[in-house]
Amino acid sequence: MFWSRPFLPADDVDALLDVCRWVFAHAYYGTDAWRRDARVIEPTPENFPVDTSLEHEDLAEDYLAFVVEHAGLSEWPFFLLTGPADTNRPPRDAGGNVAAARERPPLPEVAEESELDPRDDDPSVHLDEPEPEPVDGMRSADGRFPVPYLETDHAPDQIAHLAWSVVGWHVATVADLRTVPFEGGAIADVATVLAGFGIFCLDSSCRRVEVDRGRNLMITRPPLEHTALGTDRLAFVVATMDALLGRAAPATTRYLSPDATSAYTKARKAVARLDLDALRVEGVAGPAGPYR
């Protein structure tokens, strides 16, 4: 009799499904509402028609604009945060620090027309104004959401990082984080996949980049250190989303590296044994109102 080890321990599967249910209920206002708008963002030039003449922060800003659009958050005030002190560090409120998110300041109210600064009619007045500094590592002084710049030439890593930050901000803002029964980083990971960026997240989790630690010590690590789930668990969530949407496995694996494809293929087989109807939940209204 042959016995094969399950792709993930049963406790991990149960925990991931619990996180999915929480994200559906609190960030996307129910499984059915999520399914109506959900789509998988594929790494194609059509989805990211960036200006290839741009470099570094300018190119990242271009990618950020498309990430925000694909996330359905075009009206949210995100900006790219640059600078040595903040490079590669996600906002503390982006799903990884629940305590900070609970104490976040309210979104600023929209000013009435009579209260607007007359300088707003003249864009040139603002050209030399410095970019607002983040408040306590969270939102900037004017209420915008900082998205840290990741120094990388690998576009999928940049997109995964930007998506994680953007979606993390969304969840931390619209959901009541006092209801979180598990580690916040897992919420950001799952929500980013369910927002459609799973291909980027899964592929980045399989990559390794070389890091100079000084004194001739070089190590390798995943390019996105702030993610919580790891390759197999990310693959499971990506496979779960595809199964919920009725998406064929080859439609996803065509974009994945060999290692990511292997993990995804095993995850898809594991997901095929699940009762996905158990993921159907009703929406729960959060402090910031409806998702879209």
The description of the largest β-sheet is: 2 strands, parallel
Shape: globular
Annotation field: number of helices = 9
Please mark out the parts with pLDDT under 50 across 5 or more consecutive residues, or reply none: 84-137, 288-292
Structural class: mainly alpha
Strand arrangement, largest sheet?
1-2
Please tally the β strands and state the result: 4
N- to C-terminal distance: 52 Å
- Beta-strand percent range: 5-15%
The ordered H/E elements are: HHHEHEHHEEHHH
Rounded mean pLDDT is 75
The structural domain count equals 1
3D structure, described in words:
With 292 residues, the chain is mainly α. The chain has one domain (10-104, 118-279). 41% of the residues lie in helices and 5% in strands. The protein is built from nine helices and four strands; from the N terminus they run αααβαβααββααα. The protein has helices at 10-26, 31-37, 56-70, 98-102, 155-174, 184-206, 231-245, 249-253, 258-271, and strands at residues 78-81, 145-148, 209-212, 218-221. A two-stranded parallel sheet has the order 1-2. A two-stranded antiparallel ribbon has the order 3-4. The longest helix is centred in the last third of the chain and has 23 residues, at 184-206. Residues 84-137 and 288-292 have low confidence and may be disordered.
List the helices and strands and how they pair.
Elements: H1 10-26, H2 31-37, H3 56-70, E1 78-81, H4 98-102, E2 145-148, H5 155-174, H6 184-206, E3 209-212, E4 218-221, H7 231-245, H8 249-253, H9 258-271
Parallel strand pairs: 1-2
Antiparallel strand pairs: 3-4
